[in-house]
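Worked example

This section walks through a single chain of length 201. The input is the sequence exactly as stored; nothing has been trimmed or padded.
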Amino acid sequence: MNQSNNDNINALKINNLDKVELDVSALDSIDEGLISRYYSADRLLPIMAATLKYIDRRIENGLMLPYFTDISLETWQHKIKALDIYITDKTEGRELNLEARGKDYATNILSYPSDLPVAIIDLMPTLPLGELIVCHEVVVREAAEQDKSVAQHISHLLVHGMLHLLGFDHELGQAEQEEMEGFEIEILASLNLPNPYLPNA
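Given that input, the structure is written out below as C-alpha cells.
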C-alpha cells in the first residue's frame, strides 16, 4: 500500500493515565481535504479513547480480550494503545478485500490485528492494536443508504473496527453478534451518538 498523506498524531491522555496514539495515512489519490474533514485527530481520537475507556471498564468486570489474552492487565493498562488507519478507494479496497477475505468487492472497513507476540509488545513503548483500512467511497454510499451523516457512520465503523482488532467477531454466531453490537451501542451512546442499528439512527 502506498501510504502518503501521513498525519502522525501525538498521543492523547485518557484519564491522566492511559494514552492513545493514532496514525492516519491514505492512498495518494485520496484528497487531503477529505482526510482533514473526516479523519482528523479531533474527530477520531475521542472515539478511540471512548472505545478503550469502555473496554477498560469491562475488563475490570471480567471481560477477556480474545486477541490479548496473554497480555498482563498491568501491560494493558499502562501501555500507550497505538492504532493505524489507512484510507483507500474502491479499486484498492476491492483488491484488499479479495486478498483478505476472498470477497470480490470493496467493503467499508477491514481490520488487521497486530498479532505481535507478548515478548515483543513488552519491549515496545506502545501496544499496537493493528490497522483499520477504510474505503471512504463505500462509507459515503452506505451513509446515504442508511440516512446517516458520513461522520456518524465513520464513528460507528471506527468503534466496530477497533472491537474486531481486540478479537470480537459478529460473524462467529448470534451470541457474538449481540455482544459486539451491544458494545458498539453503549460506546456510541457515551459519545452522544444514536444506536446505529435502528432505522434512521
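What to look for: The two ends are 34 Å apart (CA to CA).
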